[in-house]
Write a structure and sequence with these properties.
Elements (H helix, E strand, L loop, with lengths): L6 H11 L1 E9 L5 E12 L5 E10 L1 H22 L2 E7 L5 E7 L3
Antiparallel strand pairs: 1-2, 2-3, 4-5
Length: 106
């Protein structure tokens, strides 16, 4: 779940149900912005009364950078393959080799 304006309502519902997980942007003391993963778990007493919640956060900036780098590499190589001119080699039953040029099309 990502933190958007309408996501706040869903977040509240999940927390009241017992658990919520989402990703959000956060600001460090040095004012740099980073991505974080947040896990919130409802805290109750022995009688089942709501006491609050536990909140666990983890910096996922490096994971996000790696995902973006992978996405860019996939786009680059997809474009190369989709625009490639290639050759297809095949043998016929009479031992001749046929060569076919082709352009990969969508």
């Amino acid at each position: 779940m990502s933190m958007t304006a309408n996501g706040l309502g869903r977040l509240s519902a999940h927390v009241l149900d017992g658990k919520a997980e989402f990703e959000a942007l956060a600001v460090r003391k040095d004012r740099s912005v980073f991505d974080k993963h947040v896990l919130m778990v409802k805290r109750i007493d022995a009688n089942g009364d709501f006491l609050g919640h536990y909140c666990f956060m983890r910096d996922i900036s490096e994971q996000k950078r790696a995902e973006e780098a992978l996405r860019q590499a996939e786009q680059k190589y997809r474009a190369i393959v989709e625009n490639a001119i290639g050759r297809h080699f095949s043998n016929t039953e009479h031992a001749r080799m046929e060569i076919t040029d082709y352009v990969h099309s969508r």
